[in-house]
Amino acid sequence: METLYHQTNKQIQEVQSLMGRLENTDRPSVHLLENELQARIDQIFSHLERLEILASKEPPNRRQNAKLRVDQLKYDVQHLQTALRNFQHRRYSRETQDREREELMSRTFTTNDADTSIPIDETLQLNSNLNNAHRGMDDLLGSGSSILTGLRDQRGTLKGTHKKMLDVANMLGLSNTVMRLIEKRATQDKLIMIGGMLLTCVVMFLVVKYLG
Fold first, then answer.
1. What is the secondary structure of the chain as a DSSP string?
2. For the residues 140-169, what does the mean pLDDT come to?
3. What digits encode the pLDDT tens for the residues 170-201?
4. pTM (2 decimals)?
5. Rounded to a whole number, what is the distance in angstroms from the first to the last CA of the chain?
6. Is the pLDDT at 100 greater than 60, yes or no?
7. What is the mean pLDDT of residues 127-154?
């Protein structure tokens, strides 16, 4: 499992590096880069399925930690998948906007043309909507990046918490003898209390019977 885990983690880091090249890639090549990124992400998901099976077969004392590590990889690749889809959506919106602008600029009109009225208002509205969508996707991509950073921080926290849990478990294992002695003493005290109550009841009964 360790070999496949480190291999998958390395692939995620490579995808993160390639994602940084998307914005600077020219239009003819960006489709090829997107296809390569998607193929790598699909392969990572395939490895994660295998890792989940291997994690479930780990010894009980290591199974929970193994599942946490696999879950962290899954969170990372899911955010990479979301970031890629956001970029593709923004690129599609930008290309649509450019194409419509070129079509509008390339139109020729004559004085006898029956369709000389250009729907300027609708074109401006469409342009405004596309710009708003573009800004919205930028914000969403930024939020996804912030979430990914937060998950990485949580990963470190979970590792520290897991170590503390193991330390506490070891401490509890060393103090089992002390706990058994405490439980034994508590049982003895309970029996003594019950015996005292019964004795008191008997004495009260005898007093009432002979003095009554």
1. -HHHHHHHHHHHHHHHHHHTTSTTS-HHHHHHHHHHHHHHHHHHHHHHHHHHHHHHTS-HHHHHHHHHHHHHHHHHHHHHHHHHHHHHHHHHHHHHHHHHHHHHHH----TT-TT----HHHHHHHHHHHHHHHHHHHHHHHHHHHHHHHHHHHHHHHHHHHHHHHHHHHHHHHTHHHHHHHHHHHHHHHHHHHHHHHHHHHHHHHHHHHH-
2. 61
3. 555 545 565 566 667 767 777 887 877 788 77
4. 0.48
5. 83
6. yes
7. 64
